[in-house]
Design brief:
Elements (H helix, E strand, L loop, with lengths): L1 H20 L8 H9 L4 H11 L1 H5 L3 H33 L8 H7 L6 H15 L5 H9 L5 H4 L4 H15 L4 H8 L2 H23 L12 H16 L9 H7 L1 H18 L5 H25 L1 H4 L8
Helix pairs in contact: 1-3, 1-14, 1-15, 1-16, 2-12, 3-10, 5-7, 5-15, 8-10, 12-13, 15-16
Amino acid sequence: MDSLRGLAILLVIIFHADVHAYPGDLNAPLPIALLNVSLEPLRMPLLVFLSGTLVPRSLAKGKKAYLGGKMRGVLYPYLVWTVILVAVTWLVQSLDGRSIQWDLVARAIVNPLGHMWFLAYLLVFYVIAWATRRVNPALIGAASLSVPLIPAIAAIGYRPFAMLGFFMLGVATASTLKETFEALMNSRLLGFVGPLGLAGIMLISSSLWLAGTPVNPSDVRLAPFTLLFILWIMKLFKNMPSLGTSSLLGSIGRQSLVYYVTHWPVMMLVGIALSTFPAILAFVLMIAAALAIGLLIATAKQRWSAVGALYAAPRR
């Protein structure tokens, strides 16, 4: 599913280009704004679901290999790129003539900066998956997605629970629900009703946004549509060999960590150079820069261990 992971990363890059090129709310042209708002409930749930599908195979390697791998491949790059993000933020603030936020380090310890929340969540989810490895992950996923039914918990923020829910459902499709999942992948019915998930998400999200209501990507009412979309698009990509590992999306998916952690600081720096450009041009160039620099780094990472050390702790 490298190509599907690559698609999720590409959607994230497009969204963040919008954020950087059109700072503030409701500034982007209507087509771009509608695209990003409509796909808001799909991007990250798809990414965490796909991450969950790899967990059973990792758990089979044993406790030491599993937890050690997550420390090397998730915690380590989280720390490295948080430091890089702090440094880039200070540089951008200096070049932009703004006051430097020296307290950024302390704030980063309490709350992940920018896009780094995803790695922080992922690390916690991996630990939860290991701690609950003898519990049916489908039950944990369903329970997590049901958290909004408890107002006291929903009031403090639903996103962690929603992401955990989709992550654990991903774990379930590769373990306790594997046979059911494979049957769905071979079902013609899913091919017909699956697009309703995408249509439902886009219709509800765009309607809320146009009505001036904030779109909450973790809204439990959208979860069934999101899950239906995820299952459908997994079936779609499975049946389309042209979207395999040799495709552009496949190459992005195989190096998803590189593209994910790199694109945000790249856009911050490129944004300074493009500050006098029309916003729509800056938007396009930010996407191009994020993909081009991601490709260069991904290539360099395979050739030089020093570059690879930015994304995974070197083995002793």
